[in-house]
C-alpha cells in the first residue's frame, strides 16, 4: 500500500511540475486519479505490480523528456558556437548582476558594416 501511495504521489507531482498544473489543465490530473481509483480494488498482485511499474515508467519518461528539452534549450542548438558561447557568458553574468561590455563583431571591427 505504501508503494502505491508513493507512486501515486510521484506521478501527480511529475504531471503537475512537468506537464501542467491542476489549475491550468486538470485533464492529466483527473485521468491519473481516475485510473488509480479504478484499479484500487485489484486483487491480483502481478497485475498491481505491472500497473505500478507502468506508472513509474511513465513518470520517468515525462521527467526524462523534460530534462532533455531543457538541455537542448541550454545548448542553444541551431546557432553558431561563438554566438552560443557569448550568450552563455552573458546569461551567467546577468545571473550574478553584472552586465558585459558591448564588443564589436569581427565585421564591425574591420569596418565592413
From TrEMBL:
The lineage's top-level taxon is: Eukaryota
* Pfam hit, one: Complex1_LYR_2
**What's the name of the protein?**
Complex 1 LYR protein
Give the originating organism.
Answer: Coccomyxa subellipsoidea (strain C-169)
Amino acid at each position: 500500500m505504501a508503494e502505491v501511495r508513493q507512486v501515486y504521489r510521484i506521478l501527480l507531482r511529475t504531471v503537475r511540475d512537468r506537464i501542467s498544473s491542476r489549475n491550468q489543465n486538470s485533464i492529466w490530473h483527473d485521468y491519473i486519479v481516475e485510473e488509480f481509483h479504478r484499479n484500487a480494488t485489484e486483487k491480483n498482485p502481478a497485475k498491481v505490480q505491472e500497473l505500478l511499474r507502468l506508472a513509474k515508467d511513465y513518470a520517468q519518461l515525462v521527467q526524462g523528456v523534460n530534462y532533455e528539452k531543457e538541455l537542448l534549450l541550454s545548448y542553444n542548438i541551431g546557432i553558431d558556437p561563438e554566438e552560443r558561447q557569448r550568450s552563455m557568458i552573458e546569461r551567467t553574468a546577468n545571473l550574478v548582476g553584472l552586465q558585459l561590455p558591448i564588443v564589436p563583431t569581427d565585421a564591425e571591427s574591420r569596418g565592413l558594416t
